[in-house]
Amino acid sequence: MVTFLPSRPGRLADVPAFTRAIGGAESNVACALAAAGHRARWVGRVGTDGFGDHLVDTIAAYGVDVSAVRRDPHRPTGVYFRTDADRATDAHEVVYYRAGSAASAMDPVSVPYDTVADGRILHLTGITAALSPGCRTLLHELTEPRPGRPLVSFDVNHRPTLWRDGAAPDVLRRLAARADLVLVGADEADRLWGTADPAAVRALLPEPAVLVVKGGEGPAVAFERPRGTGGQAPEDDVTTVPAPRVDVLASVGAGDGFAAGYLSAALRGLGARARLRHGHLAAAAALTAPGDLAAPPRRAHADRLAALDEQAWGRLHLGPGWTSAGTEADEEVRTG
Averaged over 216-229, what is the pLDDT? Predict the structure, then answer.
């Protein structure tokens, strides 16, 4: 979607002007992965309007392959407006204009499986499932177990304003159960399934080989089935990594940043602790930038921070501008 960011704090009714940007969980992750040096493809549908042109051109400028994006001459590109308050507070407002959009018309016919089958990882989110029955059917098709399927990553990404039929808890639970890797915020799990406790969330979702429960400002916990066990193992390998302290500029996009950082580390073959730390660092990049998308830290810089010992990691304090720092600590990347 095209995102309109407010020119100043306040209610949508009081904001006089907005700045155009791009948004969308899956495209955010694709752009961040491409910026981090990975090959990424975004598959979707936009209108044949100027907003569609802007989306495709901007996403392509990040280095993302947009060859599988289709243009719909009969439906518009979706847009949304938001305030700059934290999404978790009552002060936050977001208004979607995506009913009848090109993206909402996606289904297994318009997005065939072979457009995503050749990737190492197929990243999906629960937002798509909320757009229409056709989109829900598409995600069910893409998560179907089949020989040679890419590793399926599923970010629950519960957006209550998009779910009007009360189906979110069941639909998102079933889609998550069909994925190989699931990312969910503790707050989302509490809204959906009545628990924010990571171990209880794992009990509700025993099927994925890896489950990551994100704690916002708190720790992220990864439950990982030991390789070669098949089915549900008697005990998961459990890894807990606290989030660094961050001077938050804008809260939107942190979840997509975490997903991109985690997936980038997974593509590089890094271990569980490093994957969680890179997720936290990429989330911090989004939290310290004004829009949904943020430039990731240089790989060497992120690797250095991810390799800190436990005490130094616990003292890490990140502020706006930290991603442009060099490989040595400076005043925006503090360990104390």
Answer: 87
